[in-house]
Amino acid sequence: MSHDDDVARWVRTPTAALGLSDRPLVGEKGLNLARLQSHGQAVPPWYAITPGALRDALDAADLTTPIEEALAPLIARRPGQLPPSSASDASNSFDLTLEAVTVRVAHLLRQLAVPAAIERAIAAVHSRHIPAAAFCAVRASVADGGAGSHAVAGLADAALYVQGHAAIGEAVRGHWLRAYSAAALRHRHRSGLPLHPPAIAMVVQQMVDAASSGVLHTAHPESGDVRTLLACARFGVCGNDDDAAIAPRDVYEIDKTSRTLRQTVVEKPAQLGLDLVAGGVHRLPVPVRRRHTPSLGDDQVRAVVRAGLDIERAYGQPQTIVFCIDPEGWLSVLRTRPAPSAAHVRGWIAGPAQRWLRAGWAERTPGDIAPLAFSLLRRTTAASAD
């Protein structure tokens, strides 16, 4: 196998041709980044390490068969295969089995390393797309049917401020190990997904020196109201921990039609950022004079709203979008996913000129149909048709 073949097997770069068929290679996050770029969004440079890299690393360490044998007790307990005598007994028995299996697999995984050939392939692609001195984020990107809920399995955490080829290799290895954690194995077992090897890609993305960052919901995350955008922002980077108690956030609520803005600016004594001494992401103090200053200026709010509406329109349904603003005020979109509170709503496309039509319900529903009524009628009709 040539070096170019190795690179193509283990590393993929964003191209205009990247599409749905590439999901098994770049995962959900990689696919969404490529799609965002195709719609003209400002996305920091990135590349993906394919699930094939993990499979080959396991083979190189002679771990494929031993791990499969270690996981056999869990595989034998696939959902529906062994009817439990009682739910509580089954739960306790499963937990004991999972604990024993996890300990054994963790012991085996001590031998797992990123093979030199894979490291060289990563380094070759990295040098073409990301400056050598740049900090990167390394994120797991689920490449099978379990993408929607892997956050609960510990796979949503990113390694931030990773610098250099060796550190990237260690971050990748760390994600591989977490893919065999008890939480990840429990999730995959419950979801009916293969336990071994897990279909996990990695997205390596250049980090932005973020002056502020946040999350934009193009439908209200609590009420599911598709007519409202809600942005939560703070100084510094988003980090992995979204707990507002660690770094409080300002809240911006925008009406999609009128563009009316309501903002709540809180005191922000701390932000998340790079600690140059300790390394990595830490809670850092915000200068006193800035603690009551909005984390987003008016122009930045408008840029975030414009990007959010464009992304929602492109995807055809509400989205949850992670963004950041650099010190010069430029917006970057880091990732997007369907909004969990309104993922079933596909009839509302962002924009002030939208109008709900009565269509086939004209005789029964006089006047325009509100978004909630439309979604309920459509789902009822679909259920009747089935």
Describe it:
The chain contains 11 helices and 13 strands. It has 386 residues and is α+β, with helices and mostly antiparallel strands. Helix 1 (3-10) crosses helix 7. The longest helix has 22 residues, at 87-108. The strands form 3 sheets. It has a 6-stranded antiparallel beta sheet. A 5-stranded antiparallel beta sheet has the order 1-2-5-3-4. The protein is globular, with a radius of gyration of 23 Å.
Topology of this structure?
Elements: H1 3-10, E1 11-12, H2 23-38, E2 46-49, H3 51-60, H4 64-70, H5 72-75, H6 87-108, H7 116-129, E3 136-142, E4 159-162, H8 165-178, H9 182-191, E5 200-206, E6 212-217, E7 228-235, E8 250-255, E9 261-264, E10 270-274, E11 281-285, H10 298-315, E12 319-325, E13 331-338, H11 371-385
Antiparallel strand pairs: 1-2, 2-5, 3-4, 3-5, 6-7, 6-12, 7-8, 8-9, 10-11, 12-13
Helix pairs in contact: 1-7
